[in-house]
Amino acid sequence: MDTVPSQVVPGADPSARQLCFAWGPAEVLVCETLFGRTGGSRSRAGAAARALTGSVAGTGEGAPSSSRVFVVRRDQDIYIQTLRKLFNESHGIFMGLQRCEEELAGKSRKAQLVQVSKNYRSVIRACMEDMHQAAVSTRDPALQGQYSTQVSILSAMELIWNLCEILFVEAAAAGPLLLRLLDWVRLHVCDVDSMVREVLSSESPSKHKLFWNVVDVFVLQGRMDEARHLLSKEASANPTSMNMYKILDDLMKKMPVPSLGNTQTLTELELKWQHWHEECQRYLQDGTFASNPHMESICKILLGDEDAILEKKELMTTWYHFLVTRLLYSHPTVKPLELRFYAQSSMDLFLGGESGPEPLDMILMAAFEFEMHQVIKECSIVLSNWWFVAHLTDLLDHCKLLQSHNLYFGSNMREFLLLEYASGLFSHHSLWQLGVDYFDHCPEYGRVYLELHIERIPLTTEQKALKVLRICEQRQMHEQVRSICKIMAMKALRNNRLGSALSWSIRAKDAAFATLISDRFLKDYCERGCFSDLDLIDNLGPSMLLSDRLTFLGKYREFHRLYGEKRFPEAARLLLTLMTAHIAPCTFWMTLLTDALPLLEQKEVIFSAEQTYELMRCLEDLTAGNPDKQKFQDDDVETTKVEMLRLALARNLARVIVKEGTVEGS
Amino acid sequence: MFVARSIAADHRDLIHDVSFDFHGRRMATCSSDQSVKVWDKSENGDWHCTASWKTHSGSVWRVTWAHPEFGQVLASCSFDRTAAVWEEIVGESNDKLRGQSHWVKRTTLVDSRTSVTDVKFAPKHMGLMLATCSADGVVRIYEAPDVMNLSQWSLQHEISCKLSCSCISWNPSSSRAHSPMIAVGSDDNSPNILAKVQIYEYNENTRKYAKAEALMTVTDPVHDIAFAPNLGRSFHILAVATKDVRIFTLKPLRKELTSSGGLTKFEIHIVAQFDNHNSQVWRVSWNITGTVLASSGDDGCVRLWKANYMDNWKCTGILKGNGSPVNGSSQQGIFNTSLGSANTSLQNSLNGSSASRYFFPPLDSPRAGSRWSSHAQLLPPPPLIEQSCDADTANLQYPHPRRRCVSRPLNLLPENEGV
Fold this sequence. Notes:
The complex is a heterodimer.
Chain A: E1 2-9, E2 18-23, E3 27-33, H1 41-53, E4 68-73, H2 84-99, H3 106-137, H4 141-169, H5 176-188, H6 191-201, H7 211-220, H8 224-237, H9 242-254, H10 266-286, H11 293-302, H12 306-311, H13 313-316, H14 319-330, H15 339-351, H16 359-368, H17 372-382, H18 387-398, H19 413-426, H20 432-440, H21 446-454, H22 462-474, H23 478-494, H24 498-507, H25 511-528, H26 534-538, H27 548-564, H28 568-580, H29 589-600, H30 609-625, H31 629-634, H32 636-665
Helix pairs in contact in A: 2-3, 2-18, 3-4, 4-5, 4-16, 4-18, 5-14, 7-8, 7-11, 8-9, 10-11, 14-15, 16-17, 17-18, 18-19, 19-20, 19-21, 20-21, 22-23, 23-24, 24-25, 25-27, 27-28, 28-29, 28-30, 29-32, 30-32
Chain B: E1 2-8, E2 15-20, E3 26-31, E4 35-41, E5 47-54, E6 60-65, E7 73-78, E8 83-89, H1 93-97, E9 102-109, E10 116-121, E11 129-134, E12 138-143, E13 154-160, E14 165-170, E15 181-186, E16 197-203, E17 208-214, E18 224-227, E19 236-241, E20 245-252, E21 266-274, E22 281-286, E23 292-297, E24 301-307, E25 313-321, H2 332-335, H3 371-375, E26 385-388
Antiparallel strand pairs in B: 2-3, 3-4, 4-5, 6-7, 7-8, 8-9, 10-11, 11-12, 12-13, 14-15, 15-16, 16-17, 18-19, 19-20, 20-21, 22-23, 23-24, 24-25
């Protein structure tokens, strides 16, 4: 038996209708439809026949007038604004943890890991406090409900995490283990705090009706000093039973507790504890506290009397509080591996068969049983986000605690969960950037996941495209780089932004596209007589070599620049090279020759005799070799142009012969 | 999962297909009303219909987007025996102001003599190509040699499948080790035992597609078929929608071991089979990483399937029409409450619970009464929970939803969607 979360699509008609759907990068589209009932063809034909005859009005079985498309998302938590802090800050801790690889060994390594764990918890707490503030300050009841739900989820996560920290990360040994568990209970059983405050702030605490409850709470949580402080108030109000108070106070003061340092051995502690236990026993049997049932019950608690402790069920509220109290007063030196027995029996005793355990109980129980995989499994069922399991598992993995449970494709559980979490981040319009780093730390499938996800990031602006591009370039993801540039180039071209299209296709190293855009530039030039995007074309540099046409575009523009700067001989040489080296496409030769006209008509002779011959050959090649000879003959303008060119070339030749002859002669 | 938005599609007849573009910012719908509509997502997440036009003279079965490297291009196929390619023209300023865009028909592919049942663009590394299949059993592969001129498409291949075709899927692998490959499904429902899924592979030597494999175990009509994204694996994963959902792996065998010159042979395994849809399954499709398969069937549900690290496939989510019974009608009364946008687990369950074991006092401070309430946070709210079963445990009893976990054996290996 397993459970599957399901989601109703509100408004979708349930009656015998099917849903068609489509995956997107972040969302799923769902829409009502009616697939063929008997193998498809018949009903399809039916629907289509209706459509063919034009009777598409909203009648008949397949004609909803209110058809709707639903956009369904998978990771809701990703979209919760107040959880952004959790995602952002834990990302920093995660990255830190990946960096601090095992330079440290032994104790300092452990201390470091515990610190990381605490950092994660403090982020959860900070987030929880924000959420609580938000809940208090909002007036919208729905929103308030949402926030307080988040608060309770976050606090459950912190509770579980804290226990995992004690048992797995710190792996506290017998002795300190109990102290840690006590801290854990004190931290997480807080509903009694308001009661404590109420009693302590009253004028005469000892007269308060909840006075003994508060004392009991302190004792149950092992907060001896606070309990004694309260009791001393009561004692001063009751001089008659002063002696009794003194004895109880003395017992509480003397109670041996494990120390965190190595000042005493476990055997010493056990010995002292045994001694103290016997003393308590003696006073109880003496009937020292018989006159005061409250104090007698406290003494019984000190003795670890299960019934006496269970009587205070209401004050403990949870079985794991009961467990820790029970350990404190009967097995203070409990060893980690013995926990499971006490935990199970405490839960059974506490629940008393009235109710079964619930998911949180199961998770905590699995932790007490040191079933790490079970903890992670249960958490990923119950929690709606991957944040918790992914980060906890990563931490446990850094503690070297997870034997690799191989996935069928060879990845371990840590990676599996990180991949899920990061994939979720990628469905958010800005959090996806965090996801990149998580994928980077998944050795097996991180890269291919990143490739698949990053190319789906909508390239809404050039800036965003550049950001995505940078990420891909840093990781040598050549295909994605090419694809992004190509998409951007196509987009720019469609919007007639030639310059942008050209620079994107240069980045994409897409020769065919660069050729196409260069042609567009040249065509525009022919039509308008000027270039757009001069900056870009002037600064092509070596990228000019990407395609022949682009080279020509660059060189042709260079010609114009030289001409503009009146560096005529250089311009003339370049112009001629463009044709003789066959850089210019034949279709463009006429334009080039026409460009030569003003150079030929200059006062000074620019083309040498040899160059002039070359030009003449180009012109004749063009007119003779052109299969569209017809065109030249029919087109008056073209014919005139050719005639003008011939004339200009001949005159130039005449002038240059004279000039060259003169120079040589002199 | 939760419904983030609901959009009135406003088609005058049944919608047959919805399709996301590559980036998930645009979608297209097609309908028996012979039209296609294009929708764009605005900055604030709203969807607006930016184009709606009559595309065919019959029901439009499928609509699909080309990769954005080729511009904004759609293909549609119809009962009118044609497939068509559409390109968006960047609008006149007039259109832009009205938030409308203009789509022009670039070509009509008229080779089929029967209804064209599916159209799919090839993976982009193959260039701008598309495949169609038709009820007369022919798969046709077209290519636009000049991506800047979408009005010229040449019919490159015609594959006769002998059986009425309902669906096609390109193998998305761009690995050099894998030849272009296309799977074809047939919804032929005459009583025969012919394989209803055939796999064709491109042969570099003959420059033709040839049948590489047929899934002999699939003899019932097939309605949809989908290769999973490859993730760099050496083998392929194929999902098939027939009378149930099936997932196959196809491991290429070394070529020298095969007899038929040049064609790859495959070792085929079925890795999962689910009959949870009770009857026919109509659509299957993978998410972008190929880790989750969605299927839609006669039970009116979309189910999500995911493999854990043991290669165990499980249902991890269900989407269904409002109030439709899923596993018998007994649940209807309990579960058909519709919650607008609710998540599937912890989050909506604070109703009436105290935060007794948490840090902050409850806002509407009910006294920490029963421990039931204090635990409620870790339970999905009842209206969203639904017992669903694996194939092997189908139709067992439904325990009270709050007790679900009781019946879960403690030491099972983790098999849920997470682990």
